[in-house]
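Tokens in:
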């Protein structure tokens, strides 16, 4: 089992940057994959970015070139650096961990991008 706590959300103007953090309650070294998802009002939750145990990354087309996912195993933390933010990036961002025992989710952090 692993608990995930997101932080770093907030209100930012379009074109600005934010860095989200996801702190895990235990070592993430052996976790198969971790990722960030987001859910905007009235929309389904969608994948933003994932990173595997080996460091391979995957991004939604809408964020490629603007967002970067990374993991710091000694700190048990995964980050999402978000640059050139757009109003359409406004959503609750959730951290996800895929383990042999199942998927785990954080409580989410709100990101609001104003025009």
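Residues out:
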């Amino acid at each position: 089992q692993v608990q995930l706590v997101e932080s770093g959300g907030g209100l930012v103007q379009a074109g600005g940057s934010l860095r989200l953090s996801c702190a895990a309650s235990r070592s993430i070294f052996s976790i198969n994959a971790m990722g960030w998802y987001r859910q905007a009002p009235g929309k389904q939750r969608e994948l933003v970015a994932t990173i595997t145990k080996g460091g391979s990354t995957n991004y939604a087309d809408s964020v490629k070139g603007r967002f970067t996912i990374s993991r710091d195993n000694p700190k048990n933390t995964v980050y999402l650096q978000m640059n050139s933010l757009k109003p359409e990036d406004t959503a609750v961002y959730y951290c996800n961990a895929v383990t042999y025992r199942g998927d785990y989710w954080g409580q989410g952090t709100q990101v609001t991008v104003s025009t």
